[in-house]
Write a structure and sequence with these properties.
Shape: globular
Strand content: 25-35%
Number of helices: 4
Distance between the termini: 47 Å
Order of helices and strands: EEHEEEHEEEEEEHH
Structural class: alpha+beta
Helix content: 10-25%
Largest sheet: 7 strands, mixed
Number of strands: 11
């Protein structure tokens, strides 16, 4: 029979009644290989449009611009999770079209995580005031027929989004974070 990489394999030597054992293990994947496997797995999930949150913003005064992260961008549908119970350095609202909803496959489903794949084109540096807090609007840009990148958020949509965030923020006050705050750090990592 064949050995599984994680099993013990018995080997009998000719003329020897003693059983010798050895471990056969697969080599450990590198961090790059683990990253590539994670991205490949996420690509297999269906894209989902979502309004989510992050617990960090671009530095105040940053001019509006475009960022194309080369890493996985973690966001959460839950403001309390994304901000580790409203203790994070900022609040960003992420308007995405092709995020991957990780909740069904996550060990921490309560995080309500939606991941953006590497190479997602994001407009950053646009801030609105919500209940006296500067909230960044991060938007996934879409490619137009003439191969240009375009925003889909109108001023009216941003105003409505601001009202929704104000309600969400008010409802989040005093709510304990439903997941370990250490897990929430991923939502406050700078875009990379």
């Amino acid at each position: 029979g064949r050995c599984r990489p994680d099993s013990r394999c018995g080997i009998m030597m000719a003329g020897d009644s003693r059983r010798q054992e050895r471990h056969v293990t697969a080599p450990r994947p590198t961090s790059r290989e683990r990253f590539e496997r994670a991205v490949e797995g996420m690509r297999r999930l269906p894209p989902t449009g979502a309004v989510t949150f992050r617990g960090i913003t671009s530095p105040q005064g940053t001019a509006a611009g475009v960022v194309v992260p080369q890493g996985i961008t973690a966001t959460s549908r839950d403001l309390v999770v994304a901000t580790a119970g409203l203790t994070s350095p900022g609040i960003a609202v992420v308007f995405a079209h092709t995020g991957r909803d990780l909740a069904p496959v996550s060990a921490v489903q309560e995080a309500q995580e939606v991941a953006l794949l590497p190479g997602t084109v994001l407009a950053v540096g646009r801030f609105i005031q919500v209940a006296g807090i500067a909230v960044e609007i991060i938007e996934e840009l879409t490619r137009t027929g003439d191969e240009q990148w375009a925003t889909s958020l109108t001023n009216d949509a941003i105003a409505k989004l601001g009202a929704t965030v104000a309600t969400t923020l008010a409802n989040a006050q005093g709510v304990p974070c439903p997941v370990d705050v250490g897990y929430c750090r991923r939502f406050a990592a700078p875009l990379a």
